[in-house]
Specification:
By secondary structure, the protein is of the alpha+beta class. It has twelve helices and 14 strands. The relative contact order is 0.18. About 9% of the residues have low confidence.
Length: 410
């Protein structure tokens, strides 16, 4: 092995330019493939994470015509008017009994949402939730204090961004202005979601929310958790058959659709990268064949002094393997650089291009490369495989050269 490595190192030094160009040919193909797969993997991960943060429910039911909220202009602030929004097109909670009869449904949790002013300073979204079931259908992460404890108490859980921006702590009192009325709540907890726009939210008991908005027995949406997500389609069909005037939303189906679309894009980009890798493989084969022709005299001498055919075969395979290994390592470095160049461009396009997002939406629509040790190992192994496969024929051809014929070149 020491002899083989010495010969390989010497040959690399003698044909340095050609070897470097061959290595670069492999590196470009692997770098392109590595960067595109990193970005595609990030897209899948970010879309799934965002949807799971927004709701932990398997199914959400809402009124199909609920999109408009009544806008009122009440009170004065800084010399002008400020708006408040009351919920409309609500769902009657009498449908809960029918939903409970569907055996695949495990948890049913109603939610009433509306807009209000907090401490006459910030417009926030208020969610009235069922305190006994909501934690089962959501990913709410309480970082300080506790969740709501009493269904009839004027308690509130607020987002961390809201807490930080307005210096509100657990135990403090806050005022919510709804319509022409104001209501005092005690903050019992603070949650964090990682999305700033979502943290401008206040959670209160649904009974209290129904009372202060005069919507007893009503909800904006109903969140459902299934016993087994495999029954998703059956449950959606059953709900739509029983309540054709209601719309059904499923984040699970959106995740599946997004992943399917991104897999298609990944396959497309992978094909482009594999074309580049294949071109690199032909470059390796061409370099090794030229090397065999140029080194016919050397091969004849080695065979004449006792080198076996297997020694010659391993020698040329080792050279092509090292070319592939170096191409893979350099390709990973190129891929990492390309990933951090492509990622901001992808983020820019996701945000609409002309109007860059700011604040929470900047984070939501930002794409970051997903670079893992597994991806790096796969890229390097791909380079090695390309080198070995491309070097098989030249190595076999070199091992078949007869010493007498080779020494003619002396």
């Amino acid at each position: 092995m020491a002899t083989l490595l010495t010969i390989v190192r010497r040959n690399f030094g003698r044909r340095r330019t050609r070897t470097i160009l061959t290595i670069i040919g492999i590196a470009i193909g692997i770098g392109l493939t590595f960067s595109l797969l990193s970005i595609s993997a990030t897209g899948t991960q970010r879309s799934a994470e965002l949807i799971r943060r927004l709701t932990g429910a398997d199914i959400t039911i809402y009124n199909a015509s609920r999109g408009v909220m009544q806008q009122g202009f009440v009170g004065r602030r800084m010399g002008g008017f400020f708006p408040t929004a009351m919920p409309t097109n609500l769902i009657d909670l009498s449908i809960v009994n029918t939903l409970s009869a569907i055996p695949e449904i495990e948890v049913i949790s109603p939610l009433l949402s509306f807009r209000a002013y907090l401490n006459s300073a910030a417009m926030v979204t208020v969610y009235g939730v069922d305190i006994s079931t909501y934690r089962n259908v959501s990913n709410l992460d309480i970082v300080e204090g506790t969740f709501l404890q009493n269904s009839t108490a004027f308690q509130a859980v607020i987002g961390k961004s809201l807490s930080d921006d307005y210096n509100i702590s657990v135990g403090d009192a806050i005022t919510l202005q709804v319509g022409n009325s104001t209501w005092d709540f005690k903050v019992v907890g603070i949650f964090q979601s990682g999305e700033r726009f979502q943290e401008y939210t206040v959670y209160i008991p649904i009974e209290v929310a129904q009372s202060i908005t005069n919507n007893l027995g009503k909800a904006s949406q109903i969140m459902i958790k299934l016993r087994d997500p495999r029954y998703l389609s059956d449950v959606i069909q059953a709900i739509q058959s029983s309540f054709p005037n209601l719309a059904v939303f499923s984040p699970l189906s959106i995740i599946q659709n997004v992943q399917q679309a991104l897999n298609t894009v990944t396959m497309f980009f992978s094909s482009i990268g594999l074309v580049a890798v294949t071109a690199g493989a032909f470059g390796v084969a061409n370099t090794m064949i030229m090397s065999v022709v140029e080194r016919t005299r050397e091969i004849g001498i080695l065979r004449a002094i006792g080198a076996s055919r297997s020694f010659i075969l391993v020698l040329f395979l080792l050279e092509s393997l090292l070319i592939g290994l170096l191409g893979g390592v350099i390709g990973v470095l190129i891929g990492i650089v390309l990933s951090y160049i492509i990622a901001p461009l992808a983020s820019y396009n996701l945000r609409g291009g002309a109007i860059p997002a700011r604040g929470a939406f900047q984070q939501t629509f930002s794409v970051y490369p997903t670079i893992t040790p597994m991806n790096i190992a796969i890229a390097i192994l791909l380079g090695i495989a390309v080198g070995v496969i491309a070097g098989i024929y030249p190595a076999y051809r070199a091992s078949k050269i007869k010493p007498v014929e080779a020494l003619r070149y002396v």
